[in-house]
Amino acid sequence: MNEKPTNNAKDKFERSWPDLGEAVFTLAPFKGEKPPAPQWFKKALADKPTEHFIDVEGAQIQYLHWGDRSKPGLILSHGNGAHAHWWSFIAPYLANEYSVAAVCFSGMGDSDERESYSLEHYAREQIAVCEHSGMFENEEPPIIVAHSFGGFATMVTGALYGDRLAGVIIVDSPINPDNEGGPPARSGRPHRVYPTLEEALGRFRLAPPQTCDNAYIVDYIARHSLEEVEGGWTWKFDPQIWKRFEIGDREQRLKEISCRLAIMRGERSVIFPPEIGDYMYELLGKNVPVIEIPEAQHHIMLDQPLAFVAALRALLGDWNHSKPNRKGPLGV
Prior knowledge:
single chain, alpha/beta, Rossmann fold, 10 helices, 16% strand, globular
C-alpha cells in the first residue's frame, strides 16, 4: 500500500494519522491472556480451513481454503504486513455459497520471502491460487476481495487478468488525487525479538493507529503474526519488503480493471475519507459502487466484521443476479 518510499509520501501519510494517544489499541492489559470472545467468532474459527502451499516463481505461497471447490471461487487478500488468518473469522460466513481461499502474500505470514517484491508478483500469486484451487475450472470465474495494500495488488490483478475474473472488490484502498500516500516505509531493520509471547502481544499495533472494540479479534490476528525463534518471539513479515518496492501508477491501474469492480470504505477510516471515495467514484465514470461500512475504521473486518459480511453477501448476491455493465476499462 505504498509508493516507492520517499520522505514526502511517507511524511504526508503519517501526518494524516490522528493523534489518538492513549486511545490507540494495545493488547498489553490482557497480559498474554486471550480476551473473551462471542459465540459467533468461536463458531467461525471452529470451521477449520485446509492449508496449502504452492510454488510461485520459487517461493512457497500459503493459502487457506474453505467450502466446496465446485462452487464459484472467492479469493480473499490481506493488507500490508498481514496474513491469511485476517480472514479466518470472515471466510466461513461466505463458504456456503463460494469456494473461498485466503492467500498469504510472499514475505508475509507463513509464505516464503523473496529477494524483491512487486505488485505484479502478488497479482501472479493470486492467479496461482485461483488455478491451484480449481477456481478457473468452474463455469463462473472467481471474484477477489482485497483489503488495504491487498487492494492495490488486486488493482494490478484486475488490470492484467480481468478477463479471467468475474469481479474485484477493493476494501479501504484509497487513491488520492496526487496518487501519493500509503503505509509508511519500514526501515528494513531486523525485527526485535521479545523474550515472551506476552511481551510480543503487548507490542502489537494496528497501522494506521486506531482503537478497536473487538480485542478478541486483534488478539487472534496478533498471535498469527508472531513466530517463535531463538530467544523468544518476533514478527513473521519480511522487514525488507519496502526497501526496494514500487507501487507505480495506482490511478491508471484502477482505470484499467476490465472486470466488475466495487469499492468499500470504512465510515471512520482515516486514510479513506468520503472525499476520496467521491474522487474514485468520479475517476471511474460514476460506474462503480462505493459502499460505506458504518462505524468501521480502516481495519473494517476487525471493527465491524458482521456488517462487513452482510455487505459482501448483499453485493455478491446482486452480482449473481444482474448483468455487468462494466465490459472494459471505464466500462467501454
